[in-house]
Design a protein that fits this description.
199 residues; mainly alpha; 0% strand
Length: 199
């Protein structure tokens, strides 16, 4: 507040009250919060924040449609564009880009899992590729890709994808051993090595 950073002070007060209300005496924060709510800079920033959230919701709807209509090359290009923004010096732009990337990952996970559960292999293949593009360090993206490869009877590729899942943090040995998608892999030497890694 002394530095005239009213909106940042407002956010700090709001977070502090949300986290610690009822645990400690927050009178100074409540007093500051009450004062900051009447600040013109805070009001303007809140309006901008609301507009940004509305813009993001509109973008999410557009991207959800893009999962159905855009090809892999488009997703590579768009993900790279958003990823570059996630390194921006502008905090708001960086946070928005990270939220978009997280949203891509969530939708890709749901679409890939849904297509696999319906045994729609061509659709699952597209969504799995998108998932690996938008979130390449997510162990679940590699795990679902392994399920896809197993369903396509591509044992070597399935085991390679499972190895990538483990490299990226997959640790659920029970899930791996009990997943019916991998029944045909269980006689493969590479599968036992995967299980051993999880020991």
């Amino acid at each position: 507040m002394t530095s005239k950073e009213s909106y940042q002070a407002y956010q700090l007060c709001r977070k502090t009250i949300n986290f610690y209300d009822g645990l400690v005496d927050l009178k100074p924060f409540y007093d500051a919060f009450k004062l900051l709510k009447t600040d013109d800079a805070v009001d303007k920033a809140l309006q901008q924040e609301e507009q940004q959230l509305q813009d993001e919701e509109r973008l999410k709807q557009e991207y959800t449609a893009d999962f159905q209509t855009k090809d892999i090359a488009w997703w590579k290009k768009e993900t790279m564009r958003i990823a570059q923004k996630s390194a921006s010096k502008d905090v708001a732009e960086r946070q928005k880009a990270n939220r978009m990337l997280a949203y891509f990952s969530l939708v890709a996970y749901m679409q890939t899992g849904g297509a696999l559960s319906q045994n729609n292999i061509p659709v699952a293949e597209k969504f799995s590729q998108i998932y690996l593009i938008v979130d390449p360090s997510n162990s679940e993206a590699h795990y679902l890709n392994a399920v896809l490869k197993a369903k396509q009877n591509k044992s070597t590729e399935a085991i390679a994808a499972l190895n990538k899942a483990i490299e990226n943090g997959f640790i659920d040995k029970a899930r791996l051993k009990n997943d019916p998608a991998f029944d045909t892999l269980k006689t493969e030497k590479g599968f036992d090595e995967l299980v051993a890694k999880l020991n």
